[in-house]
């Protein structure tokens, strides 16, 4: 007995043959028939290399037979060849399953011993070559034979209709039939791969052709065809609107059916066997009775009708009814009521602080001149006339940011400072454009107030090359200026400067200002137009009963949709300001809520959609709280003033809102109060130590609380903020003022017509507030100020402003002039042919520390409060530094 041992790695082709039972059996058979040798094949593991080892034993008593068999085996194993089948023969080579099919075919053929493997380069077929081994011919083959074998296989593509997927989730009859076929042929030597529109098929020609035939039969059996329907367009619209769910159900129940996508073209696609069933059901759904027409008459519903059409149609669908709506819209104008609390005095007061000048902006003698930095002509002209220092400062700052407002020195100009501010024009809508004008004004005024300027001059933006309507510019700029003054509750002189050649612009501004000075408020939004829609409804259905039910449901919805609300605390309406009323009406308008407000009676009703009315009611209460809080802030600001110290001579008042919050904390016995400024810097006020601490810099400054500025006891009772009362000639008050006047005016006038006491509450409070913070309270003087008649009323309604400096000259500084010598001030009064009366004020003036002035001074030098001639003339630079107490009218 001869034992022949051969060691093969599993990756070697020859070794792989011994893994095939068919090959091993055939080898044993051939050895016995040809060499009369019993052969055993055993596979063991080599313990040293852990690789498989094949042990072949030849068992014959004839040693020569064993040797011959061994030699034949060696020749056979040495004859192993490998054939590469690449994609040149066909694209099917790239599919691994095709290799499996070929191997399966060979495994079933007793006389075909091959070993197939799928590699990246193609299919590798290993075989024993007949050309190299002739002793065991039944185990060998040739390359040519393998080529013929491959020709027995067929790879084909079968096209399919456009199908979303070939999976079990697709309930299409066609797909399910193909999937069933795929399951049936799993046991056959055939490879089938399903794709979106194609089936790849590989196998022996006869088998593949047979399966291909079955697939074609399935396609024919389950093919869908398109048929046309006899329907009117209104029926199609009814089906798609009302019965879309029913149509989808038909598509689901009858696979491979398309209805909704093709119904507009009066066509459906369905399997042939289902055509009649589907058509019959569609015609039943599309049957219509006579349309029912009616009109929604409720006027209140017309306010929201244009937004309710979809909801009405949805109700119709609930009753299997189609709703068609014709809408006719009309405008209804509502007058916005006028506020009772017009505070004409406050309006007059703020309006009197506004002036229109036909002049050159560069020549304005104010604290701050506003330059529209986006107007290159204006900007460059002002900078040229201001000179090099202003130009250099502008160029330095504008490089950092040209979009934020910034100040520069005024150079050669008469004003103190220049403010460069871009006009950010917004033309997305008319309201947005108007608002951009207002934003320009508000930013400038808020800046001026923040840095404690007392006078400011504006150009009329947009009236030059942009050619904006002059009336629009005048309205927006002046109304916003007044609104800012009312909101800030400060004394600030505002000038609007119109070019001398722009007469029409000047007249527009002057006319608007006259309206404001009469106490008239903005009238642009005093009317508001609501759109009311009348709805004509047509109900279409296959059932008269459904139509009736639907109509009833629609009417019930209309009645429930309109909600009327009567808010509480309506007496508060009498205290609402006009801007608050306007804003509330706009809020309601934006939500299609109609407010019915009677300011005189103090009544309010709101009607509209329930949710919208609820929002409007909440806004009403928010505005109620806001108005009450505003009144509280104003009351606190008039009676109690908190301020912080900048230096030994300067105290700055907190803003009114912050002033009230500080007072609230103080009144509630809090030890400290914290707040953040506009730059998000946090400060903490310590009430016990009367200091304020900047948490970032850890710097401290003193704070003070002043309250109880009582009006003079000799003042008469007044109902308005500003009043004038003749002083009794027999009173001590009269005699004191007359004596002061006569000190230098005796024999310089012929008639003393009257002495009037000026009772301007706001101005008096501002003056006393400054006085209380000033460390030089004992520097108050009674001084004279003469002026023309036309200037007198302006002063009474506002204050002494440095813009009047031109009347008294500028020899000792560019401010408001006063004199201790009434005879000197008399020289600045003027008379007209129609009125020979003269007007002179007696003012309380806090002169503080004085220094001799000159014509170039726009502010007093550091450490001084006013300028003087060294004798009787005093020049002030703050509006709250003087108070006009009396007006002397004489001749």
From TrEMBL:
Pinpoint the PARP catalytic domain residues.
711-891
> Is NAD set as a keyword in this record?
yes
**Which branch of life, at top level?**
Eukaryota
A molecular function annotated in GO for this UniProt entry is: NAD+ poly-ADP-ribosyltransferase activity
Which is a Pfam family this sequence falls into?
WWE
Task: Name the top EC class.
Answer: transferase
Quote the cellular component terms of the Gene Ontology held in the record. cytoplasm; nucleus
EC annotation? Answer: 2.4.2.-
Cross-referenced SUPFAM superfamilies, in alphabetical order? ADP-ribosylation, Macro domain-like, WWE domain
Q: Which residues form the WWE domain?
A: 628-705
What InterPro entries does the annotation carry? Answer: Macro_dom (IPR002589), Macro_dom-like (IPR043472), Mono-ARTD/PARP (IPR052056), Poly(ADP-ribose)pol_cat_dom (IPR012317), WWE_dom (IPR004170), WWE_dom_sf (IPR037197)
Q: Which residues form a coiled coil?
A: none
Q: Which UniProt keywords apply?
A: Glycosyltransferase, NAD, Nucleus, Transferase
List, in alphabetical order, the GO biological process terms annotated in this UniProt record: negative regulation of gene expression
Q: Where in the cell is it found?
A: Nucleus
The keyword Lipid biosynthesis is annotated on this UniProt entry: no
By what name is this protein known? Poly [ADP-ribose] polymerase
Organism this protein belongs to: Rotaria socialis
Q: What is the lineage of its organism?
A: Eukaryota, Metazoa, Spiralia, Gnathifera, Rotifera
């Amino acid at each position: 007995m001869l034992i022949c041992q051969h060691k093969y790695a599993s990756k070697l082709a020859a070794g792989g043959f011994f893994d095939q039972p068919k090959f091993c059996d055939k080898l044993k058979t051939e050895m016995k028939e040809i060499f009369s040798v019993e052969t055993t094949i055993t596979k063991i593991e080599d313990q040293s290399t852990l690789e498989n080892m094949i042990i072949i034993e030849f068992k014959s008593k004839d040693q020569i037979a064993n040797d011959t068999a061994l030699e034949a085996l060696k020749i056979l194993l040495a004859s192993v060849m490998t054939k590469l089948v690449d994609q040149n023969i066909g694209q099917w080579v790239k599919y691994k399953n095709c290799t499996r099919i070929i191997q399966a075919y060979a495994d079933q053929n007793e006389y075909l011993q091959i070993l197939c493997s799928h590699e990246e380069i193609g299919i590798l077929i290993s075989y024993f070559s007949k050309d190299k081994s002739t002793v065991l011919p039944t185990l060998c083959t040739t390359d040519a034979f393998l080529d013929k074998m491959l020709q027995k296989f067929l790879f084909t593509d079968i096209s399919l209709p456009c199908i979303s997927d070939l999976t079990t989730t697709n309930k299409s009859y066609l797909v399910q039939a193909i999937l069933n076929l795929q399951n049936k042929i799993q046991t056959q030597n055939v490879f089938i791969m399903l794709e979106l529109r194609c089936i790849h098929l590989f196998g022996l020609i006869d088998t593949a052709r047979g399966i291909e035939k079955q697939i074609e039969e399935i396609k024919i059996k389950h093919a869908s065809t398109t048929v046309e329907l006899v329907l009117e367009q209104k029926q199609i619209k009814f089906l798609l609107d009302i019965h879309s769910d029913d149509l989808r159900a038909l598509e689901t129940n009858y696979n491979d059916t398309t209805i909704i996508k093709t119904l507009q073209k009066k066509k459906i696609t369905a399997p042939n066997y289902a055509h009649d069933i589907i058509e019959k059901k569609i015609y039943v759904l599309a049957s219509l009775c006579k349309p029912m027409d009616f009109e929604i008459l409720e006027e209140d519903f017309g306010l929201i009708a244009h937004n309710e059409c979809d909801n009405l149609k949805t109700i119709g669908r609930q009753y299997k009814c189609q709703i068609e709506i014709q809408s006719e819209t009309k405008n209804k104008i509502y007058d916005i009521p006028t506020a009772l609390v017009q505070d004409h005095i406050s309006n007059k007061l703020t309006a009197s602080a506004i002036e229109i000048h036909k002049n050159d902006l560069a020549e304005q003698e104010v604290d701050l001149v506003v330059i529209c930095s986006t107007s290159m002509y204006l900007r460059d002209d002002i900078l040229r006339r201001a000179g090099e220092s202003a130009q250099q400062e502008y160029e330095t700052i504008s490089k950092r940011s040209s979009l934020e407002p910034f100040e520069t020195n005024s150079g050669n100009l008469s004003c103190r400072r220049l403010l460069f501010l871009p006009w950010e024009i917004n033309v997305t809508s008319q309201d947005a454009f108007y608002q951009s004008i207002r934003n320009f004004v508000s930013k400038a005024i808020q800046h001026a107030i923040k840095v404690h300027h007392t006078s400011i001059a504006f150009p009329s933006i947009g009236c030059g090359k942009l050619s904006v309507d002059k009336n629009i510019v005048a309205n927006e700029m002046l109304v916003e200026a007044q609104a800012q003054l009312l909101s800030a509750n400060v004394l600030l002189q505002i000038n609007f400067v119109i070019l001398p050649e722009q007469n029409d612009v000047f007249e527009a501004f002057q006319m608007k200002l006259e309206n404001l000075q009469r106490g008239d408020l903005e009238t642009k939004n005093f009317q508001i137009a609501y759109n009311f829609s009348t709805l004509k409804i047509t109900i279409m259905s296959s059932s008269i009963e459904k139509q009736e039910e639907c109509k009833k449901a629609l009417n019930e919805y209309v009645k429930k949709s309109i909600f009327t609300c009567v808010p509480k605390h309506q007496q508060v309406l009498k205290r609402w300001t006009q801007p608050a009323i306007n804003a509330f009406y706009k809020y309601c308008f934006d939500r299609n809520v109609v407010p019915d407000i009677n300011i005189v009676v103090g009544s309010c009703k709101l009607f509209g959609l329930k949710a919208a009315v609820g929002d409007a009611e909440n806004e009403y209460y928010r505005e109620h709280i806001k108005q009450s809080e505003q009144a509280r802030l104003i009351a606190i600001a008039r009676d109690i003033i908190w301020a912080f110290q900048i230096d030994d001579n300067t105290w700055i008042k907190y803003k009114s809102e912050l002033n009230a919050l500080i007072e609230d904390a103080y009144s509630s016995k809090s030890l400290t109060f914290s707040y953040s400024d506009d730059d998000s810097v946090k400060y903490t006020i310590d009430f016990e130590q009367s200091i304020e601490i900047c948490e970032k810099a850890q710097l401290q400054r003193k704070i003070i609380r002043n309250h109880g500025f009582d009006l003079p006891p000799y003042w008469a009772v007044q109902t308005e903020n500003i009043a004038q009362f003749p002083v009794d000639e027999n009173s001590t008050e009269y005699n004191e003022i007359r004596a002061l006047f006569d000190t230098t005016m005796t024999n310089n006038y012929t008639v003393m017509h009257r002495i009037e006491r000026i009772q301007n509450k706001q101005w008096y409070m501002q003056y006393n507030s400054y006085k209380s913070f000033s460390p030089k309270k004992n520097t108050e003087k009674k001084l004279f100020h003469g002026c023309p008649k036309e200037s007198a009323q302006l002063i009474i309604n506002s204050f002494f402003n440095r813009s009047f400096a031109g009347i008294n000259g500028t020899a000792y500084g560019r401010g408001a002039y006063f004199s201790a010598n009434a005879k000197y001030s008399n020289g600045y009064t003027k008379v007209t042919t129609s009125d020979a009366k003269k007007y002179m004020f007696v003012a309380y003036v806090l002169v503080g520390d004085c220094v001799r002035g000159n014509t170039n001074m726009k502010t007093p030098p550091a450490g001084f409060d006013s300028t003087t001639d060294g004798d009787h003339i005093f020049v002030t630079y703050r509006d709250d530094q003087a108070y006009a107490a009396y007006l002397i009218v004489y001749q």
